[in-house]
Amino acid sequence: MTRVLVTNDDGIDAPGLHALARAAVAADHEVIVAAPARQSSGASASIVAAEEDGRIAVERRELTGLDGVPGFAVRGGPGLIALIAAHGAFGEPADVVLSGVNHGANVGRAILHSGTVGAALTGGLNGAWGIAISLDVGMHPEHFHWDAAAEVALSLLPFLVERPRGTVINVNVPNTPGSRGIREAGLAPFGIVQTTLSERGEHHLRLAVEDLPNVPEPGTDAAYLADGWVTVSGLDPVSHVPLGYPESPASTPPASTSPASTQ
């Protein structure tokens, strides 16, 4: 039995979170649910929390259809939740962090901003396996296939745990009862939606999300997802990239001196 933390960035009441937790329970894993008390989309891997006297508010929750599963609403984002879980906030640290099922796709390099991805990466950074799972609901969905996305995530878990601890994958699922299959894919240059400044007032700004006008680059996660495939992309929590920065000449350390004594 694998100990699994289920979290998200859409909040403790999100249907995708509950579907993912139910799928993990049905697969006979030991499940803990801990999610933001409120919507935290776009939180990335932020560890900022609503604190009072240095305390992070955590409320125990009973979740419908998840009898016996410990549930916690946290006044903080998903990255923070994955971090404090790794330090024993909800009992023994989890072996796997399942983050989602997110309301909307997380593809391309724009996943940098995703709280769903941020939680999985934070779990990986702290020694767990991580899956960020998102459902491509589009802008105006009529139906939500949360259970289909959750089942995909759990089906990939045996593949994931054959990899070294700390391995993290980002998974996107079409909003359909089934898919064409699963494709490993690189990240698109950006994504399939963009955030724009829609309103500028004297004392406020408003952002909006809209579809990108261009066709996704072939062979990327955005393109495969648009063609009806489940996409899987490997992510590194922290990756060192050699820069080739020129070394500075070695400098001679100054000679040590003793303070002059006074008589």
Question: Can you walk through the features of this model?
Answer:
Residues 241-263 are annotated as: Disordered. Residues 4-178 form the Survival protein SurE-like phosphatase/nucleotidase domain. Belongs to the SurE nucleotidase family. GO terms for molecular function: 3'-nucleotidase activity; 5'-nucleotidase activity; exopolyphosphatase activity; metal ion binding; nucleotide binding. This is 5'-nucleotidase. With 263 residues, the protein is an alpha/beta fold. The protein has a single domain, classed as Survival protein SurE-like phosphatase/nucleotidase (Stationary-phase Survival Protein Sure Homolog, Chain: A). The chain is 21% helix and 27% strand. The chain is built from 5 helices and 13 strands. It has helices at residues 15-26, 78-86, 115-125, 146-161, 221-226, and strands at residues 3-7, 30-36, 51-52, 55-56, 58-61, 71-74, 96-103, 129-136, 168-174, 182-184, 193-200, 205-211, 230-235. Strands 5-6-2-1-7-8-9-13-10 form a 9-stranded mixed sheet, sandwiched between helices. Strands 3-4 form a two-stranded antiparallel ribbon. α2 packs parallel to α3. The radius of gyration is 22 Å and the shape is globular. The model is unreliable at 257-263 (pLDDT under 50).
